[in-house]
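Researcher: Before we compare anything, I want clean individual predictions. No alignment, no superposition, just each chain on its own. First chain goes here; please echo the sequence and then give the structure tokens.
Model: Echoing the first chain and its structure:
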Amino acid sequence: MNLLPETVARLARIPTIAGIKEASGVLDQVSQIVNETLDDFVVLSGDDSLTLPIMSVGGRGVVSVVANVVPGAVATLTEACRGDLQAAQAIHRGLFDLCRAMFVEPNPVPVKSAANLLDLCEADVRLPLVPLSETSRRRLEAALAACPYVPARAIAA
């Protein structure tokens, strides 16, 4: 459920609430939350593909799905967002298609399938989830193969 920025600002004044995972996809909303909360209130991106834009308006990191398969790239992106815009933009471009592919079907099905393709774990999911469709699997394989942060040799045949 999306919380209005005014509600988040009120909640941010409660000492036991330290931050929010912001996944509305609305940068104006993120900006308003950052502007209306104290400096020690942490706003984290809840959308991998919006990490760079959210951090550019004051977010401090990401609750990441794609980091399950390319953790180093996500860590480097968030670090670059703190001072090297060109590097952050380049990493963002390199990760963007993979970030989008991670949501071709409900989470965690694509990320488990990606981890399986990288030989990190099995792709099994429990009901009510179902295995990744063949069409989505091909899309995910293409995104993994195209991502410069996934070594080609890492993708299981």
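Researcher: Okay. Second chain, same rules.
Model: Second chain and its structure:
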Amino acid sequence: MKFDITIIGGGLVGASMAAALKNSGLKVALIESREPSPLPQDESWDIRVYAISPGSADFLRDQGIWQRMEAPRLTPVYDMSVFGDDNSSHIHFSAYETGVAELAYIVENRQLQTAVWEMLQSQTDHLDIICPAKCAAIDWQDTHVAIQLEDGRTIETALVVGADGVNSWTRQQAGIEVSRHPYQQIGVVANYSTELSHRNVAHQWFRRDGVLALLPLPGHRVSMVWSTSETYAAQLKELSVEKLCQRVAEASSHTLGKLELITPPAGFPLNFVHVNNLVQQRLVLVGDAAHGIHPLAGQGVNLGLRDVRKFTEIIQQRGLQSDVGDFMLLRRYECARKEDILALEMVTDGLQKLFNNANPTLARLRNLGLEITDHLPLIKSQLMQHALG
């Protein structure tokens, strides 16, 4: 089996790249170890959600993906309120004041995954989906890459795209170094029904026990992400349903009234991962394989989709370059993406460290910073323009 581009990893970012290459004139393969699960035929809600920026939504719409999702399951965010840990300082972002229709959309992971894979299955003219399949070995050559699958099949490709997550096997096989440190925090997620309407507002509290976010879902529902210490996360998950709802309501200053649990809480560890090189000869890294950031800004998936947008743009505009694995061509992608990635890494890592510090002087300064920024419309606009992309 011979291909121009082989994508390893069929999550949202890898699958979106396969869809975006449909008009490239290239032969593409997508290798994924697990077949996607079908949407459940009930009224349940996915515990994992994304905050999709308008720029990412436009990209997915251009690929014909966005239109395949169930519109009643999508929630536009019109405002965002962020509070400090002194119960008074805050900053408010408004779609109206920013001059856009919405700041983001809250989308269930399974809705988006299903839409992407439905689109891929209609693109058999340029794409071979090799699923389920696992890679066993990879051999980097000057003119091509040979990928050995566990079932004995061999794939020959001009370029490998590593889209296989924060613990990327592809990245490890290429010997690319990473800088990594655990936050020693757990992201606790759960969904709730609310007594009061969220009015399409996303709320976030920088608390001394972590960062709590309540993201609007359709109707009187919200999705919670509480990034907190491993010890406190364990305590939260051990609480009874009633006490957990009370704890979240109190932590959110009863902004949405009484809460009732829809989906049981789950947790995932939070880590910072900086990848030293995004490319090497015949290899490109995208998505979580290329960066791992704290979820406090809700920008992880958007960062990955911006990787895809820039890479496919460079491939489409490569001109007479017939070798898509050429290092100088791939360097254009790396140079174009490094500034955006580094900026978001610094902001999210810096904010996590700033608000995860018990120093009282630092606490006063960070809360004062929120208040000052809220009264500087130019800075607020610049922050939002980057997040909207």
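Researcher: What stands out in the second chain?
Model: The radius of gyration is 21 Å. Additionally, The first strand starts at residue 2 and ends at 8.
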